[in-house]
Amino acid sequence: MRKGITALLVLVAIFAAVYAGLVWNNNRAAPPPTREQIDRHWESSVQWLLHNRQAILDNQNPILWWMIGESARVSGDERLRDLFNEFLSRYEAQSVWWVFFDTARFRNTVIPPDFYHQFADYQQYFLFALSCNRQMALDPVISVQHETDFCLRKHPLSPACVTHQLMGFRFAQRFDCAEVDGLEHKIETSQDRIVMQLTWDPRVVDVYIQRVLMLEDSGVGARIKPRWLQRVLDAQLADGSWSALQPLVPLGGNRYFGFNSRLAGIGQQVGDFHATAQGVWLLSLLRAQ
């Protein structure tokens, strides 16, 4: 019994020491990235998009393409603008998700609950915030997401819930949706929680980029530690993309044990459009400063 307790205490102490080291490494002092660094990483990320043009054009995720469109708008990069326009020419304009690209067309239109209830709750909130649909604002699935304690109550273990909620608040703010009260306070509360997550969750995976991105997008870039930016840049692969996996232990065949969106697992460190689109948008915002 005593040996078992001793072994358990040793394991707990090792885990605590490793975690403390990861948190220290995540938050230690670092110089801010230079403009030359940001420009270099930007160009590398754009080249990845261009080299993988056909593959990413097959990805119909509208919010990722909205990010590419925002990156093109903010940066003025004609290459991204051409890529974004090519996607728009392929995308089904009759889809309700065209709301990402033409919010005025869907402003206060009637969207049947049977249709939008098939999507994840945060996607329903995006649809509401973009269309500012009064009917949707009263839907229990939507109205509960107006509250800043939504993630704590409904998705306490979801790493991306807070950033998704802040994205929804920002859409409502961008398009002047009066259906959400106290938006500034809600955004500030979300920002505080994201700063806390970045401080204590040292995994440089997709959601880490998303957290840094949402702080920058929502106007509190000054709260982003230089070390966090440095880690996002360091996580960029040699081909200019970002992976959904932070590798820790190589297993051969380009397979690693490492951190992922949930916690940890085994996978390949390969370019991921979801992570890369967010990295590109973040770099475009940093370059615009």
What is the average of the pLDDT values?
Answer: 95
What proportion of the residues form beta strands (DSSP E)? 5-15%
Q: What's the count of strands?
A: 3
CATH architecture: Alpha/alpha barrel
Say what the CATH topology is. Answer: Glycosyltransferase
Helix/strand/pairing category: mainly alpha
Report the end-to-end length measured between terminal Cα atoms: 61 Å
Task: Please trace the helix and strand order, writing H or E for each element.
Answer: HHHHHHHHHHHHHHHEEEH
What composes the largest sheet?
3 strands, antiparallel
Shape descriptor reads globular
The number of distinct helices, counting runs of at least 4 residues, comes to 16
Low-confidence stretches: none
- Across the major sheet, the strand order is 1-2-3
* Whole-number count of domains: 1
CATH class: Mainly Alpha
Radius of gyration, whole Å: 20 Å
Helix content: 55-70%
